Amino acid sequence: MTGKQKKEWKRNAIGYSFILPNFIGYFIFIFVPVILTFVLCVMKWDGSSTPMEFVGLKNFVKLFHDSGFRISVTNTLYYAVFTVPLTMVAALLIAVLLNSKIKGIVVYRTAFFFPYVASLVAVGAVWNMLFQPEFGPVNEFLKFIGIANPPKWCASTDWAMTVIIIVSVWKYMGYYMVVYLAALQGISQDLYEAASIDGATGFKKFRYITIPMLKPTTFFVIIMMTIQCFKVFDLIYVMTGGGPGRSTNVLVNHIYNAAFVDFKFGYASASALVLFAIVLVVTLVQFQGEKKFTDYV
Question: Which Gene Ontology biological process is one annotated for this entry (predicted)?
Answer without folding.
Answer: transmembrane transport
